[in-house]
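Q: How would the structure tokens look for this protein?
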Amino acid sequence: MRNTLTTVVAAVLLAACATQDARKTTESRNDALMADTESGRIAIAARPATSIDMSEVLALRHRSDANRARDVYRHPQETLSFFDVYPHHTVVEVTPGGGWYTEILAPYLRTNGQLVAQIFDPAAQDNQRSRDYYTKSNAEFRAKLAANPALYDRVRVVETPASAPVLGSPASVDRVLTFRNVHNWTAAKKDKAMFKSFFDVLKPGGVLGVVEHRAAPGTDPAVSAESGYITEAYVIELATAAGFELAGRSEVNANPKDTRDHKNGVWTLPPVLRVPEGEDAAKYRAIGESDRMTLKFVKPAR
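A: Here is the predicted structure in token form.
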């Protein structure tokens, strides 16, 4: 009996030590990516030889409280898992905007993979308003990368025209991801060209991941795009016409509270909150961010 008790106690102590060591490893990785409070930069003291886990990336201190607060609507860990994104992949993030997902993808892929950020060439835009928008947006995105070289120095930026985009060498990347962008391309009549560019740059067997504001079934895409929403059927039509096969749907980013009929379109909801005059913003905060489709497409291996 005494020998048995001794064995059990020893096993418990060994398990406790292993747990403590694992916790210390996680803490040391986070400490190695500490925020420099004076410069606002991220200092990587000793980058680990192996990639960090997605949950560790989401906990890193470079992410602002405002961005973390949106995790409840955007579900980044579940979404990227659904798209089968792994640390060794080469991933194209299409028109990253303010870089919300870039903050997650860049450190996740930094050690063993590659993040390619695709932005639009302002000079190739059809009108001055678009040229001005992309000039400002691109400058802000590049400044974000430059401000934290320890995180973003390995992000490759590709600037393309929207009418004939080329995202890289043919069959050269593992994943192409787009978040809440399709309505813009549909409104500008560039969506078919964009989906063709996704197909061209992906390796056979590669995945296209699409998250988009979801319009009510049967809605005319040319009309709904102006309000920021697109039907799931239309996105599937675009992808399959480009050569993709639908590999899965997820409701991880669904929001049944979103009626999708707001006066100022999807921008009525958070985070923009372009609330109609005379209405209470609290009503739209209670809805949260938009109802979104999450679709996974595969480029056939043949």
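Residues 52-298 form a domain with the Rossmann fold fold (CATH 3.40.50.150).

Confidence is low (pLDDT under 50) at residues 1-49.

Upvote if useful.
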